[in-house]
Amino acid sequence: MSLVCAFALDGSPAAYAQTKPDTAAPSQHAHATATASTFDVPGIARPAVSVVDDFARALAAGDLNTVETLLDADVLILESGGAERSREQYLGHHAISDARFLKGSQRKITWRKARIAGDMAWVASESDIRVVKDGKALALLSTETMVLRRDPAGWRIAHIHWSSRPHKGNGETP
Fold first, then answer.
1. Domain regions of the chain by residue span
2. Which of 142, 158, 130 is nearest to 6 (CA)?
3. Chain centroid to CA 23
4. DSSP per position, 112-142
5. Which of 65, 122, 140, 149 falls between 20 and 30 A from 134, CA-CA?
6. Do 73 and 157 form a contact (C-beta atoms < 8 A)?
7. What is the pTM of this model?
8. In what order do the strands lie in the sheet with 82-84?
9. Strands 154-166, 71-79: parallel, antiparallel or unpaired by DSSP?
10. From the CB of residue 125, how many other CB atoms can be counted at a distance below 10 Å?
11. Residue 2 in contact with residue 97, Cβ under 8 Å?
12. How far is residue 86's CA from residue 74's CA, in Å, rounded to a whole number?
């Protein structure tokens, strides 16, 4: 299976959505099983988390120009046992198929944690992704870790690790 990304728009639980959610009203995205401990994103980490969310929206929309601006030139992307070692390599390779795969997907972040230390940040997310591929409905559990570096222009994604597996439908979490 190719890419499965995890997405949320802020530190709040996100409901299934195909459109850009309103981040100004996080309570609208709460779901019954979410708790305050499900999302651990301190205020200082929100700018880095916003970059992760902007990346997710851009990739799902096929906006590779925005994807490019959010990735560090030397980004390392690990997925399904493979590696892409630069922004140029990713954009020339898997970004197109990743965007195609994610188009129209429904994703629900079930857990997220973020931390910052100086000019480095990490954001870890777990999600449930529903997508139709080749006419077949897929339900996937996905995990994602992004490491970001702050430079004079702002936060850029320096590393991504994606992993996913089929959802068994028995209430399991990633």
1. 31-166
2. 142
3. 15
4. EEEEEETTEEEEEEEEEEEEEETTEEEEEEE
5. 65
6. no
7. 0.77
8. 39-40, 106-117, 120-133, 136-151, 154-166, 71-79, 82-84
9. parallel
10. 27
11. yes
12. 5
Sign of CA dihedral 140, 80, 145, 86: negative
One digit per residue, the tens of pLDDT, for the chain of length 174 reads 444 343 333 333 333 333 233 333 333 333 334 455 699 999 999 999 999 999 999 999 999 999 999 999 999 999 999 999 999 999 999 999 999 999 999 999 999 999 999 999 999 999 999 999 899 999 999 999 999 999 999 999 999 999 999 988 765 555
**Closest-CA residue to 76 (of 92, 65, 87):** 87
Q: What are phi and psi of 87, to 5 degrees?
A: -60, -45
- In terms of phi and psi (left: phi > 0; alpha: psi -120 to 50; beta: otherwise), the region of 5 is beta
Structure tokens at 84: 């892409």
- Mean residue pLDDT across the chain: 82
Architecture in CATH for domain 31-166: Roll (3.10)
The partner residues of 143 in beta bridges, in order of sequence, read: 126, 163
**Maximum CA extent, the chain:** 46
Read off the pLDDT of residues 98-112 as tens digits, 9 standing for 90 and up.
999 999 999 999 999
Tokens of 95: 């970004």
